[in-house]
Amino acid sequence: MARLAIRRGWQALGVLIWALTAVFFLVRLSGDPVLLYLPENSTQEDVIRLRHAFGFDRPVWEQYAHFLVNASRGNFGLSLRFVQPALPMVLERLPATAELTVVTLALTILVALPLGVIAATQRNTWWDSGAMVIALLGQSIPNYWLGIMLILLFAVVLRVLPAAGRGGISSVVLPAVTLAAYPIARLARVVRSELLDILGREFVRTARAKGISSLRVLVRHALRNALIPVVTILGLDLGFLLGGAIIVETVFAWPGVGSLVVQSVNNRDYPVVQAAAFLMAVIFVLTNFLVDFLYGLLDPRIRYG
Amino acid sequence: MVEALVPAAQSRTGLPLRGLRRRRGVLMTLVVLIAVVAAAVLPQVISPHDPYTQDLSRRLTPPVFIRGGSWMHVLGTDALGRDMLSRVIYGARVSLMVATIAVIVSGTIGVVLGLLAGYFGGPLDEIVMRATEVQLAFPFILTAVALVSVLGASLRNIVIVLGVTGWTTYARVVRGISLSLKEREFVEAARAIGCSHTRILRRYLFPNIIGTVTVLGTFAFAAFIIAESGLSYLGLGVQPPTPSWGVMLADGYIYLRIAWWVTVFPGLVLMLTALSINVLGDWVRDLLDPRLRNIG
Predict the structure, then answer these.
(1) What is the mean predicted confidence (pLDDT) over B97-103?
(2) CATH number of residue B124's parent domain
(3) Helix (H/G/I), strand (E/B), else coil: A253
(4) Which one of A88, B170, B250, B290 is separated from A193 by 20 to 30 angstroms, measured CA to CA?
(5) What is the pTM of this model?
(6) Do A243 and B134 touch (CB under 8 A)?
(7) ipTM greater than 0.85, yes or no?
(8) Architecture of domain A86-298
(9) What distance in Å separates residue A210's CA from the closest CA in chain B?
(10) Contact A206, A171 (CB under 8 A)
């Protein structure tokens, strides 16, 4: 276990260093990064001054080494617009995004598991078709549009929930439902197909033959074995949620990392975009690092060598 | 003789239509898709008005089934008095074009890299797999938003961005299949009679992954349509006044309280299109490669 932890730890670290590299080269893709940082009507003198101030006139490898050293200390430079350290600005927005993500994940599990179980146990009935139609809809609906439609229905027409902003439990409902639509659809489909596979196996038949109640067979014997793919999907969904948050937070004016990214992109505030992108990568890599260990807890047969 | 040992490939290339009758959903979605493709190919024939003509005296006219609406503008007009139906029809062109090119670009990159990585292994495999991991660490939309903001928002750039961010799924799946295929007898036999690597990759491995790639491509197509509209919604995709479903949605949002139709119709068409493609994808998957049931 410890050996695996170390090996996976190195791998995760490697991914993060490459992620930093990608973030570094992002602003250099356009050719001259100075032009990205300056307003359109700047003079040639401004360009030269800023190029020197940011060190863009030094060799690229030197800038890169400098960037890596600073980034490892959590220093992504100053926000160009607000002239304060970029990373703390992003971290300040993190609790809002975390709240949205946790509620969305909880909602996903609470809805998708029953949906998948019903579809699998009532296979080829109206229940099954209904659940799968819901899943298909969730997969096909653009989440920002769903958000707008929910605002139209619950905030404009019915006036029962707030349309935007953060504050109190009621404000998280619409963004979370919006964000959860796709993960619910994906997870429900996975649960259904995994369960269908497992319910046909011998050990399930044996359990039934022993006279165990069908609920117990389902929960103790079948569902437990379906948990590994479920956890895998949830780990990958986190990446989707952080990305989806970019659009959904903008729709609902939710003060999280996602809406900060969009604002910063519009302000051409690249240090903030870089810091936010790196933070999202760190969260994703860490979560999936933990998911790997969860496997061992869920299924003792998995031994790490 | 050796060719005869490649069993699955031939039967997968033909598209048997059996079972289509039992799946009424698929037929319905085919009708929707034919309509969308027709709108994309021949918008000038189908659309009742020019999508760019403004008429401020008729701005925010409601659709025909609401009081104040008329048959002149069946789906109403937007804030500049442009005909919604015509703009929705022209919007199909942008969506389908972006998604088609992006699927071809990302599919080509992913399939080539995945095939080579799985077949040759070694450092190439290592590099390709690390690259997919790094890219997976960044949410898809984040990568797209950041890249478009640096490259500049335009139709061409959005295609490039979607194309180069979408290759990872193909690469990982194709690598897995080519890894297992290269150990099979028919590949060994091909090697034994002296086929070159290029020939083995082209004639023996590639035909066996076409089915899988088609399935992945179908789901990616729906995802790209949604992604394009999302980026356009954020102002990072297709630029106004070009009619794109995402741009129309974003425009309409301000008038949500007084003119819901400007936001509702483009989204509805967008959802219907994505839904149809996903249903079609399910069907194609069951037909070509049931192993992929957890993807999409």
Answers:
(1) 93
(2) 1.10.3720.10
(3) coil
(4) B170
(5) 0.84
(6) no
(7) no
(8) Orthogonal Bundle (1.10)
(9) 32
(10) no
